[in-house]
Amino acid sequence: MSWALTALAALLVIGALLLPNTLPGLRPDRFVRIPAEAILGVGVLILLPRRPRLVAAVVYGVGLAVVTLLNLLDMGFNEYLGRGFNAALDWDLLPDAKSYVADTLGSGVATGAAVGTAVLALLLMAVLSAATVRLANLLARHRVRAGRGALVAGAVWVLCTALGLQLAGLPVASDRAAGALKAHTMRTVQSLRDEAAFAETAKADTFGNTPPGQLLPALRGKDVVFAFVESYGRSALEDPVMAPGVSRTLDARAEALAAAGYRARSGWLTSATYGGSSWLGHSTTMSGLWIDNQRRYRTVTAGDHLTLTRAFQKSGAWDTVGVMPGVQKGWPEAEWYGLDRVYDAHRLGYRGPKFSWSTMPDQYALEAFERKVHGRPHDRPLMSFVILTSSHQPWAPVPRMVDWEDVGDGSVFGPIEKAGRRPADILTNTTESRKEYGRSIQYSVTSLTEWLERYGTKDTVLVFLGDHQPIARVSGERASRDVPISVVAKDPKVLEKIDGWRWTEGLKPAKDAPVWRMDAFRDRFLTAFGSTPHPSKG
Questions:
Q1: Which of 22, 201, 270, 452 is deepest in the core (most CB within 10 A)?
Q2: Which of 228, 302, 217 lies closest to 269 in space, CA to CA?
Q3: Could you write out the DSSP letters of every residue in 193-221?
């Protein structure tokens, strides 16, 4: 039993030292390597007297637990956001993760997951500390042989490094744990530097001092709608599982809009985020600044950098309104966006069931928008900022379209929600997740374009786009960050203004259609519709 516990302790330590930080990296061959940190640890521990040795062993064990936790966080962030965990930026996202789990799987599961995470962290520290202490005591009892073994292992490590020996594409000589700590340290330092540099960048604005009369003159008299479709990414149009259904929907909806007198142009934008944190995509598009983390978001929304939506407000020629079915608490960013009124989840009058994370189906949100705002008499044209949520993960249950006359207060969606699939049914099934994601995109695009077909006028201009690609489980490893964007209008003069963009005709951008960074859109849009640059330097 004693030797079994010692062997287990050694396996735990070696496993922690070699643990990768991505789920695809969890393969047996990743653990058949020689960790430099183990050799150095042996060398230090056999030289120390008893008490300092025990202290060093505990510190070593806690350090291993920290590295393990960082690797596990990296796995989660890489899976859902396409990037590693950032200790300087990402702690604020953990409450959002808990809220997402609560909305998706229930508050009991969310609470259990939070408690389980805390217990796991403490357990890792306790177990790895106990393992290193046990191994340290063993090394002390066999000091001479341990020293010789460390020297031999060190020589082999140096030889493997010098010869560049590899196993399954990875160096046999590993410094994985030290490399992980270094990467996280550099990531944190760079983020802190970036925050200061970005604050200065955000003060400058090409259109910051543009007089109201010189903003968007070519769109005066138009009702302009900017709509984001949650998780609407390039994969929806190109993945072999999802693309056929989504493509058929886009083609059918483009044909229906054409019959109603509308034409469309479509291209690609590269999103500032991936898999989640949709607000980063929204703010990047509207501000013309690259906002790819929470610190940047807080910095820019606390300032007065001109957003595209606020340009409409500043011009004095439009009333501005936000339709935010996903907002369920205070949203101070409305002022930064330049929105005169905001209709959040509580102000849209929905009485039906939630669809997992989504508070209401997109069709209801759009019908409520029509009933409460767009369809009512107004003295000035509207600029509307609409965030649709039905295609938010976990894509179960997915709503389906009902007759617009039957939408009412949303109660009609009750049987649809009950008959739909549960999140637990698809969360661990990649193929089913892709299928349901594709269905959700079809539903959202259909809702939005049917709303336009039903309620739009000759003066309606719709700009709709995705905020980011879906998570890697759906979009695939190393997927691009591109999202589709479309401009739809009846007035041919509107589309003539963007002829120089060389976008594809219709709702489906060609594979080789132009790809811009998302932060380029604001200035290109303002310029295309006649705005005159008057820079501010902050």
A1: 452
A2: 228
A3: HHHHHHHHHHH-BTTTT--GGGSSGGGTT
Kindly state whether residue 204 falls inside one of the protein's structural domains. no
**Residue 98 reports pLDDT greater than 80:** no
Q: Which two tokens stand for residue 353?
A: 């069931």
* CB-based contacts of 317, cutoff 8 Å, min separation 6: 216, 220, 380, 381
Residues 222, 172 within the same domain? no
* Lookup result for tokens 């607000």: 279
Note whether 230 and 467 are within 8 A (CB).
yes
Residues 131 and 230 in one domain: no
Measured CA to CA, the distance from residue 63 to residue 80 in angstroms comes to 26
Q: What is the CATH number of the domain that holds 515?
A: 3.40.720.10
Angle in degrees, CA 480, 483, 485, rounded to 5: 155
H helices of 345-501, in order, are: 362-369, 414-419, 423-426, 430-455, 472-475, 492-496
Residues 164 and 285 in one domain: no
Residue 307 lies in a domain: yes
pLDDT tens, position by position, 468-510:
999 888 887 778 899 999 999 999 999 999 999 999 999 999 9
Question: In terms of domains, do 182 and 230 share one?
Answer: no
Same domain, yes or no, for 385 and 243? yes
Q: Going along 51-152, which residue ranges are E strands?
A: none
How many angstroms separate the CA atoms of 295 and 198, rounded?
10
Give the model's pLDDT for residue 153: 83
Residues 6 or more apart whose CB falls under 8 angstroms from that of 160 comprise 34, 171, 172, 173
What letter does residue 465 receive in the DSSP assignment? E
> Does any domain span residue 113?
yes
Is pLDDT above 90 for 134?
no
- Say yes or no to pLDDT of 191 above 80: no
- Residue for token digits 């735990």? 12
E-only strand ranges, 345-424: 382-388
- If asked whether residues 121 and 10 sit together in one domain, one would say yes
Within 8 A by CB and 6+ apart from 111, the residues are 102
Question: Is 290 found in the same domain as 402?
Answer: yes
For residues 56 and 457, what is the distance between their CA atoms, to the nearest angstrom?
73
Residue 219 gets which letter from DSSP? Answer: G
For the cut 80, the answer to whether the pLDDT of residue 95 exceeds it is no
Q: Tokens for 334?
A: 């409305």
Please state the rounded mean pLDDT for residues 383-410.
93
Residues 6+ apart with CB under 8 A from 356: 103, 104, 392, 394, 396, 397, 423
